[in-house]
Amino acid sequence: MTKQILALSSMLTGSLMAGSVPAPTYSKAPVPPAPAAPSQLSYNTLEVGWLHSEWDFVNLHSSDGAYGSLSYSPVEHFYLTAGGGWESVELLDESTDLWIANGGVGAYLPVGGGFDLVGEGGVSFYGFSNSPIGDDNDASAYFRPHVRGRWGNFEVQAGAAWTNLDISNEWAGFGRVYVGLINNLDLSAGISAGKEEYTLNVGLRFRY
Fold first, then answer.
1. Does the N terminus or the C terminus of the chain have fewer Cβ atoms within 10 A?
2. pTM to 2 decimal places
């Protein structure tokens, strides 16, 4: 009788253990945030081209010249940039040389659909030389909030630029269009327009 009771007890215990559900476990480790989406645009670029400006300053008329710019993104969502240019500015009866340069850092945030929100800031310089009234130069901080969008071989940039140079408009709107020619090479065209001058540019951009 005792053996039968022990056998029955063993069967009931095994049945209960087999049908039991383990208690849930909870992890207190924080869940890492999802990584930001990568940009569809390239911020590693080299651009060169031609400039033409029309001035509304006293004694300053049209000007033509050349420009170059370099952009490099060492880490995702940030880039470094530098550029400069030269223009021969027509005065009443002669001309003068205008030199411009800038260097800064930018940050970009992809928002989907091929669009990035971009903010760029740094230092801008300019100088006149060979002027009949003597040389002149100035420096200022600058800031360029803008958007960029790319669809296949077509890219646009639009926004505004602020600076406080003697010859600047403080705020000037700008727009640029890039059309792919061959792999990593784009044709560029754009305009920058403020209260007292506007500038047209045409050039080539290499994406590396």
1. N
2. 0.79
Q: What phi and psi values does residue 42 have, to the nearest 5 degrees?
A: -100, 135
Q: Among all chains, which residue has been given the structure tokens 């047209």? A: 200
197 Cα distance to chain centroid: 24
Report whether 187 contacts 179 (CB < 8 A).
Answer: yes
With 70 as the cut, is the pLDDT of residue 100 above it? yes
pLDDT at res. 180: 97
SS3 117: strand
**Residue 183: count of CB within 10 angstroms of its CB:** 7
Q: What's the burial of 94, exposed, middle or buried (CB within 10 Å: 0-12/13-18/19+)?
A: exposed
Element housing 146 (H / E): strand 136-151
